[in-house]
User: Fold this.
Amino acid sequence: MPIVKREEIELQEVKMDGVSKTAKANVIGPAQGWSTDTLRVFRISPGGYTPHHQHDWEHVNYIMKGKGTLTIGGETREVAAGDFALVPPNTMHQFRNSSDRDFEFICIVPERGAY
Amino acid sequence: MPIVKREEIELQEVKMDGVSKTAKANVIGPAQGWSTDTLRVFRISPGGYTPHHQHDWEHVNYIMKGKGTLTIGGETREVAAGDFALVPPNTMHQFRNSSDRDFEFICIVPERGAY
Assistant:
């Protein structure tokens, strides 16, 4: 039965230039039978951030826990548990956690954007 | 800024054979810039269910709120907030809410499976 419980997901620290205090896990992707995309879970600890970068694919996001900021194309907005976002392709973007609690979200990318 | 707050999402009752007490909204899809898939939100009220059916595309699910059951290929398991699931293509499946609270989940489908 292809069900994954949150507690079964083991996040690994992301070691990449421009990333701080961020861990991730690939939860559903080609290995699980999703042929086109990969659903990843990210956790940014307080003070952490993802890279301020861009690429030619979009992100589809859902905020699962906590709150943080999302910068897209120079505009920054707060996002919190329950919010959805689409980061367009070829647009600079960054998630940051300036709260004092963990900030967790889903990030879906096409296969060429998964790592 | 392509952010959608949960409270902005207006769910519409699903009127389809085999469906009971279920509402949904398409949140992110081609109209919002996701070229390949559609992310929908479903809410099943207590006692409700989605159709027991199958199709040739997969579902990717995340349980946002409450709990219910997911039947895939004759096996039924409880799923609750925080769980992920992949419903394989060409496999009979159904969500049911036998709890006394609303059961809400994300359901992602490729464009040909969106309605």
